[in-house]
Amino acid sequence: MTTAATRHSDRRISPVFLGILAVTAVTGWATWTGFAAQPGVAVFLFVTAAWIVSLCLHEYAHARTALHGGDLSVGTKGYLTLNPLKYTHALLSIVLPVVFVIMGGIGLPGGAVFIERGRIRGRWRHSLISAAGPLTNVLFAVVCTAPFWLDALDGVPADFRFALAFLALLQVTAAILNFLPVPGLDGYGVIEPWLSHGVRRQVEPFAPFGLLFVFALLWVPSVNGAFFDVVDSLLGTLGIHEFDTYCGYELFRFWRDPSGVCEVSP
Description:
The structure is a single chain. By secondary structure, the protein is mainly alpha-helical. The chain is built from 11 helices and no strands. The radius of gyration is 19 Å and the shape is globular. GO terms for molecular function: peptidase activity.
C-alpha cells in the first residue's frame, strides 16, 4: 500500500485548517441567527472561510490522488494536512482566488500543490490526479445546492440562503473554469498525458499565464455575459435563482452601499 510509507503526522489535519473550519461554523451561525450587527460582515467571513475550505479540499484531492498514484512525496510536503500554508504558491492558491471573488464574484482556484509527475505511471492516473480537484468543487456545489433542489429552505433566513447561493455559484464557476483545457488549469492537465511530446513542449511556456489569461478574458463584457448565462442556467436547474446569487454577492460586498433590491435583515 502506498499510504503505508507516509507517517501519521504527515496526514494529521492541520490546526490552521481546523481554525478556518471554526470561522466558517461561527460566521455561518451568525448569518443564520442574525447575531451579527452587520449581516454583510458575517456573510463575507462565512463565504470567504468556506471558500478557503473548498480550496484546501481541492488541493487535498490532487495530493491524495497523487499519493495513491505513486507520489509519496506529497506526505512529506504537508499536502495531506489540509494546511494552506504548505502550498507551493500560497499567493496563487489562496490570496488571488479570494481577490477574484471580491472583484468579480468568480471562483477560480490557482495552482498549489507540486506533484512529482515522474513518480506516476500511466496516463489515466495523471488525468485522474488533475481531475480530482475540480471534481471536489463539483461535490461541494452539490452540497451547497442540495437545500435548493430538495426544497428544504422553509424557515431558512434570507441572509443565509443568499450566502449559500453565492457560495454555490463560486463552486460552479470554479468547476467549469478549472475544466477548461487551458494550460495551467486542471482541464489541460486531464488531456495533457494524451498529447504528443512535441505539443506538450510547445504549450509548456504558456502554462504560468493560463490562469491570468482566463481571468482577463472574463473581463470582456461579451465573454463574461455568455459565461454567467451558462452558470445562471445551470444553477437555475438546481433551484437557485439569479436573484439569490445576486443578493448573496451584494451582502458579501458589505463595504458597498446596498442597492435596495435585496431585503437585508437588520
